[in-house]
Each structure stands twice: as C-alpha cells, then as structure tokens.
Amino acid sequence: MVSFLLRRIGIMLVTALCLTFIVFYLTNLPAKLDTLAKTQAGSRISDAEVASWLDRNGYSQPMLVRYGEWLGVVPGWTRVEADGTQTGRCNSLTAPTDIAATPERCGLFQGYWGNSTRFRAPVSEVISARLGATGLLMMWVLIVMVPMALIVGVLAGMREGSRTDRALSTFAIASTATPEYVSGVVFIALLASSSIGVSPLLVSWGWIEGPVLFQGNARSALQQITFWNFALPVMTIALFGMGYIARITRASMTEVMTQQYIRTARLKGVSFANIVLRHALRNALIAPFTVIMLQIPWLLNGVVIVEVLFSYPGFGWTLFEAAANNDIELLLAASVVAVLVVLVTQLISDIGYVWLNPRIRIS
C-alpha cells in the first residue's frame, strides 16, 4: 500500500507540473500580455508603449524563465532605478528602498501567489476567501445530493423492471438532462419572484411576511447562511448532479443483485433487507464512490453558472471574473487549486476503491 501511495503521489506531482505549465503558457501568450498591458496602462497606448510596459514589468523574458520565477525555482527579476529604488517581482514583499531585505526568489514554492489586477489585492487572500465560500456551497450540496442519489439508485436497482425502478430512473434521467441554468431560472421564477410563481399567492393568503418565499440572490449567505437564501443554489446543483450518481448506483446495484452469492443468500432464507444492506450494498457502492469523488472537482469548477446566476461570489465566480478581466496571476492561482483538487480527489478515489474491493488490495 505504501509503494502504491508513493507511485500515485509521484505521478500527481509530474501531472501537476505539466498542467500548470500548459496553463501558464496559455495565459502568457503574446496577445494576452498585450491585452494586460492595455488594461493596466491604457487602451490607447501604442505598440512601443506596450513593449515598454511589458519590459518594465518583467514580461519580456523567455517563457521558461518566467515560469521558473512563478514557481519560485528561478530568482525573480529585479531592476534598480536611478534614484536607488528597486523594482522587481519580489519587491512588493518589502519596502522599495530595502534592497537587502528583498528575497531572491518569490514564487509558488515560497507561498507567493502574486497580486490580482482585478481585485487589487493579494491573490492568496482572494482565493482563500472565495474558496471558503464555494466550500460551504459544496458541503451542503454533497449533504443533500449524495444521500438522495444513493437512496434513489438503491431503490431502483433492488427490483429491476418494477414500477418503482421505472419511475425513479425517469426522474434521474430528467434531472441530469436539465441544465443548471434552466432549473435555476425555473426555481427563481417559481419560488423567488414577487410577480409570478407561488410567492404572490402566499403573500395574498398571508402565509409569508416578505415579498418572496426564497431569496434569488445568495450574496447575503456570505454573512449568514439561512435556509431561505441558500436553498435555491443548493437545490439547483444537487438536482443536476444526483441523477448521474443515481443512475450509476442503480446499474451497479442491478448487477450485484444478480450475482451467485446473492441467490445463495436468498435460498438460505436470509431476509431481503439483510441481503441488500449486508451483502449487496458494499459491493454496489464501488462504482458510485468513484463517481461521487469525481463530483468534487466538478463542484469546484463547474458551478460558475450557478454562482453567477445567484450572485454568489465563490470560486467559480472568481474564475469567471479573472478570465473576463485577463487577471493572469489570479487565473494561474485558480488553475493550481483546481489541479490540486482534481489530483487529490483522484488519489482518495483510488484509495477508497482499493479499500472497498479486497481483490485489488490482495493483488
């Protein structure tokens, strides 16, 4: 098991290095850098002024050198002006005139993520705040989505071909086939609109005091999460994700229920509930466990539409803002976080798969 973990961690490090270089290359293309210069220095500057701005800010160096600076394995670029002040990549960490205290390297390995040109703040602060907001959303989505999906999948797979199976399978397919931007708009129209849906009816009956039943804007959840301001984004994401998990669980459960040891247990007179809970369920959860772990990277990066729709400034919303405003440092930091989340969840998935399947553990 130790050698397995070491191999997987080694592969993770190489994969992370390759993926971050690809993202760094794509975000530092000449056209992107020209756009960045015009965004920061003025949209009407000439090509010569663009080249001068890029040179003053260290973007004129070779790609591999700048990638090494960003990682922190190559000394950061520096320039001493005529008045004795120093400018450079690492200069923002110290006073402009304190050249001796300026670190030689400042990159990812030293914990320096750069500064966001969109939010005018250190990237580490922006990422940590937005990642925490999305973490809360992911937690509640998983709490709602996973149990519901497993219940639907197990109930459908216990008796293949029954009316329950057909009804639950139809529900799972419909939920997966409905995009988040459709279900989100429907939820807002039905439950969070003061002119249409159920809210005007409930107001006229005197059942609610406010103008709407639920809040269509989830920004207030950053200060205090309540059922009324957080339910709609959670329901929108959970409904879309649970159908896929339920279908995988149903297929796995159906396959397990046809195995020989299940038939033997039934012939011995073991109750159907004990067969499902003690014999079939653990083996049936191997495939769904892998799918559930794959939902975590999707929840981190794939909720951009939901976060924008409900005005919830999480990680996906920040990624959208960084891409729309050509914030290179923030894009790079977000890509690193996304790559690490994907690789770590894959590692956890592999470990869980080995634990659930003794045959893999023995081999």
Automatic annotation (TrEMBL):
* Gene Ontology cellular-component annotations: plasma membrane
Is Signal one of the keywords UniProt gives this record? no
- Name its cellular compartments: Cell membrane
Locate the transmembrane regions by residue number: 9-27, 137-158, 185-207, 227-246, 285-310, 330-356
Q: Tell me where on the tree of life, at the top rank, the source sits.
A: Bacteria
User: How is this protein positioned relative to the membrane?
Assistant: Multi-pass membrane protein
Which terms are listed as keywords in the entry?
Cell membrane, Membrane, Transmembrane, Transmembrane helix, Transport
Q: Does the keyword Cell membrane apply?
A: yes
Matches recorded under PROSITE patterns: ABC_TM1
Residues in ABC transmembrane type-1 domain copies: 131-349
Q: Which GO terms of type biological process are on file?
A: transmembrane transport
* InterPro entries hit by this protein: MetI-like, MetI-like_sf
Q: Which one Pfam family would you cite for this protein? A: BPD_transp_1
Q: Give the family from UniProt.
A: Belongs to the binding-protein-dependent transport system permease family.
Q: What is this protein called?
A: Peptide/nickel transport system permease protein
Record organism: Roseinatronobacter thiooxidans
